[in-house]
Amino acid sequence: MNQEPPSGSFSPRPNPAIVPPQHKHRRHAWVWVVVLAAFGLLFYWVITQHNKAQAAVTGGGRRGVTGPVPVTTATARTGSINVYLGSIGTVTPVYMASITAQVTGVITAVHYREGQYVKKGDPLIDIDPRQYAAQLAEAQGLLERDQNLLAEAKMDLERYQEAWKKNAIPRQTLEDQEKVVLQDQGTVKNDEGTVQYDEVQLSYCHITSPINGRAGLRLVDPGNLVTANSTTTLVVVTQVQPITVIFTINEDDLPEVIQHQKGGKRLQVDVYNRTQQSLLSTGTLATTDNLIDTTTGTIKLRAEFDNKSGILFPNQFVNARLLVNTLENQTLVPSSAVQHNGNQDFVYVISDGKASMRQVKSGNSDAGNTSVQGIQPGDVVANSSFEKLQSGSQVTISKVKLPTASETSGSNAP
């Protein structure tokens, strides 16, 4: 029989903040269980990702590929391949003349048409020459007067010399006349300079082309007033035949270029359009700059083109490629047959109806071909259906052209 506590006694309640020792051990056990479970899930995820990466490298993990895979093929061959140095370049004229007025006057005629090809000496613009012609006539008149005064002084000097021989005049008179002749000679020389200056000023009224080239858009019209030495351009003439392209190369490639130049070799330069799909023109390397740009580590080069077709236009952006070498006896395959996975390159070699992945080392590429190491000339490689291929896949050779890697969207990696 339970006895009730005596009246007035105190019975303490348990404190929930105080956890018995056995409860503490249980809580620690649960924490370790959660931590171990998290590590287990993390380890499982890492293993899964590693397996996926291995499958990508080995060509495994293809989805739902059943039966032989139709592929188009290409045969590795021995050949030569060009080595190029390329960069973006700018079409730059050899000569470009921005003509401004050197005298003040009203334009009376514009002789050129917009876009016209002009030759050196062809008339471009006329400025009203009347005031300059009048100044020239005035200077010529002064010159004639002073020339006659000089002639008169010389005749007097001859008379004084004869008289001096006869002791008819004092020595001072003869010497004074000699100085008069010298003064008149100086005056005539000054007048001649004035005439020449006025002739030059008058010639500025008739503006001609200083070079062979193409005239730009018309910038002035008859009746416009122009002032001497102003910044207003009257016409721009640009030489377009021949024309040059300025582009840059890495400073590390400069010694090879200089070596070829010292040997007297004319290096070929090809220029392509902005998309590098169309060859615009072929020329030769003309010269290199005399300084390396320290901010970019590059140096400028100038290539010259005859541009007879006129396809190269001043200030046009192009892609320039400098041919520095030609490698012989290279194993070549189509560039579309070489697949990439990170830093690794590989091809699928077709033999006995099966595809075998073969790692290769890619070299230079040109004209749709790439030099490779790791296969032999005569090996047949796949050139399509890479998304279905894996090492050991059965294949059939398709007679119909299938899309290559460069023609399909997505990654090149298997």
Describe the 3D structure.
This protein is an alpha+beta fold and 414 residues long. The protein has three domains: 67-81 and 328-407, conserved putative lor/sdh protein from methanococcus maripaludis s2 fold (Beta Barrel); 85-95 and 244-324, Efflux pump adaptor protein, beta barrel domain (Elongation Factor Tu (Ef-tu), domain 3, Beta Barrel); 97-238, RNA polymerase II/Efflux pump adaptor protein, barrel-sandwich hybrid domain (OB fold (Dihydrolipoamide Acetyltransferase, E2P)), CATH 2.40.50.100. Helix content is 28%, strand content 34%. The protein contains four helices and 22 strands. Strands 3-12-15-14-13-16 form a six-stranded antiparallel beta barrel. A hairpin with a 2-residue loop joins strand 19 and strand 20 (369-373). It is elongated, with a radius of gyration of 46 Å. The two termini are 85 Å apart. The model is unreliable at 1-11, 57-65 and 405-414 (pLDDT under 50).
